[in-house]
Amino acid sequence: xxxxxxxxxxxxxxxxxxxxxxxxxxxxxxxxxxxxxxxxxxxxxxxxxxxxxxxxxxxxxxxxxxxxxxxxxxxxxxxxxxxxxxxxxxxxxxxxxxxxxxxxxxxxxxxxxxxxxxxxxxxxxxxxxxxxxxxxxxxxxxxxxxxxxxxxxxxxxxxxxxxxxxxxxxxxxxxxxxxxxxxxxxxxxxxxxxxxxxxxxxxxxxxxxxxxxxxxxxxxxxxxxxxxxxxxxxxxxxxxxxxxxxxxxxxxxxxxxxxxxxxxxxxxxxxxxxxxxxxxxxxxxxxxxxxxxxxxxxxxxxxxxxxxxxxxxxxxxx
Length: 318
Hints:
Blueprint: H1 2-8, H2 13-28, H3 40-45, H4 51-63, H5 67-75, H6 91-101, H7 106-114, H8 126-135, E1 145-146, H9 147-162, E2 167-172, H10 174-177, E3 182-183, E4 185-192, H11 197-204, E5 210-216, E6 220-225, E7 231-237, H12 242-250, H13 253-265, E8 268-271, E9 274-277, E10 283-285, H14 289-296, H15 311-315
């Protein structure tokens, strides 16, 4: 909801800040918010949560949705909002793309770039379009590196990240972890105290290895490295989300889809934050990858075997 209000512009700044603050408060809670579901006063007593937001939390816990949010999503090109943290492409730029070209999704944006439509919009110089292409990884196929070379570059970056104050765990994910023959980009997953996330992101984008910053948000940084101009995507998560994030960002995409399909059959959902019961919202696993596989009754599948073939069926325990 905060992102929706950010997109709607300066007149909605107060609401955007209010919902962002509430989200932060909920993330920092030690106990599940469900424990306060029947006490609006206790919810209001939480920092940054007023009566209106407390009512919406209760509405969500009771019905699984927030009507105001559903209405908001009709007013904005919701699938585009994930791009707001790309440097140089904030709410105003996305509104311009939507108003001038009718772009509503990331896929439509990619198609517009490939057809050269963005250059016709005032304010979209070729340099800005090139930066957006890099952020969307449209040129990644042209820059694939041999595994050994990519590992060397990734390990150098990982070492620098592990030396940043506040970083607790950091692991290379993506196709490097799956030992693919060629690599398009580098993925690294980090855990740290949330209070230090902003400082860590700011340190990462200033590392000597970084040549250009594509994205610098609260939970993610995307940079172009000086070595081979390879892109590195770094994501920050909570400790109890580490396994889920590592699984999600390791892939392969096909392997992840198969596990999500299995989860759906059981009334669960899987994302980068964990495995959840659809009905109750309760988190079932996510701290480690082993915990996730164990929940499904599957032996641990090494990253290099996660190809989206028959590996899940073969690993199912009786």
